[in-house]
Write a structure and sequence with these properties.
Blueprint (H helix, E strand, L loop, with lengths): L2 E6 L30 E2 L8 E7 L2 H8 L7 E8 L4 H9 L2 E2 L2 E2 L4 E5 L19 E8 L6 H8 L4 E9 L2 E2 L8 E4 L2
Parallel strand pairs: 3-9
Antiparallel strand pairs: 1-3, 1-11, 2-3, 4-8, 4-9, 5-6, 7-8, 9-10
Length: 182
């Protein structure tokens, strides 16, 4: 069984081919990972960064990706505005989205993490502060973290998945990957 931890850079598709457009020049996993037979266990949006797990084991892939297994996923989220205790409490209690209420999350304000620079950088608005939140969820709806922070009045500026279960991105720079025991 193979498990690959990959630090997906901003702007890279979470798939090996770009099926969207003919002649597209968007970066895919194949630009970084040359290992046949591994497939992503879940996904990260084009505009999100961080940990993406790939494996050649179907059971492990299902355990990681399927929300019924409730595998925790932790994100470092830079949001617009100063998220106070009321906003964090809303995340902790579950946020009402168009498709239903989210499960309760773990949420806390954190100091600016020492991360690699994003290319391109986030938009900075001179008169609007921002802050960082560590958010852990156990589901994986489409663009869920971005929708949750928007619902509490703090749109996401930067989203970095830091860990999935016991696997974390520690030490991997954007575009780097390594095999680890599952």
């Amino acid at each position: 069984m193979t498990l690959v931890l990959f630090n997906k850079p901003y702007g890279v598709l979470s798939q090996f081919t770009d099926r969207d457009t003919a002649g597209s020049t968007r970066a895919t996993l194949s630009h970084f990972i040359d290992m046949p037979g591994v497939y992503p266990a879940g996904r990260l949006d084009l505009d999100s960064e961080g940990l993406l797990l790939l494996t050649n084991d179907g059971r492990l892939q299902a355990r990681i990706a399927d929300p019924k297994h409730k595998m925790p996923k932790t994100y470092l989220v830079q949001v617009e505005g100063e998220a106070g205790e009321n906003a964090l409490a809303a995340l902790r209690g579950g946020v009402s989205l168009k498709d239903s209420l989210t499960r309760p999350a773990k949420a806390e304000r954190i100091a600016d993490p020492s991360l690699w620079p994003r290319d391109p950088p986030i938009r900075v608005r001179q008169n609007i502060p921002d802050c960082w939140i560590r958010l852990t969820i156990c589901e994986g709806r489409n663009r869920q973290v971005r929708r949750m922070t928007a619902a509490i009045g703090h749109p996401t500026l930067r989203l970095v998945r830091w860990s999935i279960g016991d696997w974390a991105i520690n030490g991997l720079l954007p575009g780097e990957w390594q095999c680890r025991p599952a």
